[in-house]
Amino acid sequence: MExxxxxxxxxAASTTxxxxxxxxxxxxxxxxxxxxxxxxxxxxxxxxxxxxxRTALSRATVYHVLSQLSAADLVLTAEPTxxxxxxxxxxxxxxxxxxxxxxxxxxxxxxxxxTPCLHVDVPGAVIEQADVILRGVCAGCA
Length: 142
Hints:
Elements: H1 2-23, H2 30-41, E1 46-47, H3 48-55, H4 59-71, E2 76-78, E3 86-88, E4 94-99, E5 105-109, E6 133-136
Parallel strand pairs: 4-6
Antiparallel strand pairs: 1-3, 2-3, 4-5
């Protein structure tokens, strides 16, 4: 009996992932569901190579899927100066603080809580996104 309960939990989770993908205009393919599901289950900031290692999908597939998920706003990216682009799923837009000593990445809430969460005046432009990377030394390294 417990086994069928787990199966329906997995089915419900897959349906939710599939719905999110379809709502974003993407087909719910196995690689997309796998990558999005892994990122959901593992909060934090992850390089693409970690997703490759943990999902057993090919490197090319993971990079392609992450690009699609990012373009569909299902995955957020952080691009620290040194090192690879980091990927995460998050409910709210936010910025990032990167410790120059240990490399830790810390989420920083947006002031307005909406995208774009930094308002600047660029005459004639429509700003859709603002990516802010704060750099310094975290409390643990200070």
